[in-house]
Design goal:
Elements: H1 2-16, H2 29-34, E1 41-46, E2 52-60, H3 63-81, H4 101-107, H5 109-115, E3 126-128, E4 139-142, E5 145-154, H6 156-165
Antiparallel strand pairs: 1-2, 2-5, 3-5, 4-5
Length: 178
């Protein structure tokens, strides 16, 4: 009898365990989008072969997490916000500027959620150009963690081509229906 009860309890525990639940939890879109509600980025220079050098800020509980967030912010800015210029470089326009940035993001939320996930495809379009950990004015301890600035090179033209190849970026002709 004890063995039957033990087997039943083990089965109940395994069946209700988080390990047996679906690996992909429902995503709260509003919570996910708050990561990009407010960040700073500026164009530092325009490089060869369709690259943009940006100075981007990121926030994280640890410096490593803040650096990773800054990389995501750099790609996000190139896709959706655009990046202001400075005295050395013109502004970088958002890749989706002509398609309604928020609409594109909302209509393709799962695509971009996966794209920006930890170790996601966004990493294929960034080179970090800051040596070591940010220091001085580029590293600030703030409530809840760190705010850091890093110089990031974004492969802007390659990123734009990826969005075209994946059918997210539409040409002007694709946007008109007859």
């Amino acid at each position: 009898m004890k063995r039957i009860i033990s087997t039943i309890l083990t089965a109940v525990i395994l069946l209700t365990s988080p390990l047996t639940m679906d690996a992909k939890k429902p995503v709260d879109k509003q919570k996910a989008m708050k990561e990009w509600a407010n960040y700073e980025a500026t164009t530092q220079s325009v490089g060869q072969n369709g690259t943009k050098s940006l100075k981007v800020w990121g926030f994280g509980k640890k410096v490593d997490k803040a650096i990773e967030q800054a990389k995501k912010n750099a790609v996000h800015a190139c896709l959706f916000k655009g990046v202001p210029g400075n005295s050395n470089a013109m502004k970088t326009p958002a890749i989706f500027a002509n398609q309604g940035n928020i609409l594109v993001l909302d209509e393709n939320f799962e695509y971009f959620y996966d794209f920006f996930n930890e170790n996601g495809d966004y990493l294929n379009y960034v080179n970090i150009t800051t040596d070591g950990y940010p220091s001085g004015q580029d590293r600030r301890e703030v409530k809840g963690g760190y705010k850091v600035a890093v110089n990031v090179q974004v492969m802007y033209d390659n990123l734009k081509q990826r969005m075209k190849d994946d059918g997210i970026l539409k040409s002007a002709a694709d946007r008109f229906t007859y």
